[in-house]
Amino acid sequence: MAEGWRTATLAEKIPETVLKRGPRLVWNILSKEAERLRVDWEISAPQQWLQVRARGEDAEAFVNLLVEKYGEAPVQRSKVERWDVRRGFITGSGRVGFGVYVDVGVLEPVKKDALYPLHRMRAQLADGVGKSSREILYENSLADYFPVDVVVTELDGDKITVELADGTRDQLQLWKKLIFDRVITVGIDREYAEKIVKAANLGLDIIMIETLSLLVQCLVCKFDTDAPGVIARIGNRLRGVGLTAFRTPAKALLA
Questions:
Q1: Is the bond leading into 109 cis (omega within 30 degrees of zero)?
Q2: pLDDT band at 254, cuts 50/70/90?
Q3: Starting at the edge strand that comes first in sequence, how are the strands of the sheet with 40-44 ordered?
Q4: The whole model's pTM is what?
Q5: Who's near 25: CB < 8 A, 6+ residues apart?
């Protein structure tokens, strides 16, 4: 670390599409936290994880504020221990049949994703029913970059095994019980999501925007608004933004 610099890798993974557009979006978001602070700072994204370097009179306060708000990635494999709760992001969704991988921010000495195995996916998200990993991912809208809190259940050499932490599991179960469809947007901040809702005249169709991570937003639909319909209306305004529909099963029970 350069002399005078305070560095932290935040628990935020930046989608490739955002990185290709340049650092302005992320810079604008974090700059709000630097207001009225005496600090020089810069950002980078080693293997897509958001890293901040700062120096100056308020550098430590600035970095600590960001870590408190967004969490911190372990970076080093040696910093991950069994039963740790870590913020991670779904990666390679649907590409393997024995579970799904979660990027928990292990970047050194080599990058290593954790495995959320199929038997635990079934137990936590499918009431033990023998569904495929793709079915479970689809039903829960667990696309790439969806943020999840996970518990490290096993460490075997360089292999890391995880399962969902209670908070994330309970969140997904609650979504299924409520009568609202949802649209997951990957690659925009909350402020831009609000602008898109307004520009598309969806103010009466979207009852709430939930921020899941720095650049992942959840648009909560009104009871009689379907998620695919919302995507059809905003998709042409969001080129390069990942859009995933969550169809709540609770609606079918009321039919």
A1: yes
A2: confident
A3: 6-13, 49-55, 40-44
A4: 0.95
A5: 18, 189, 215
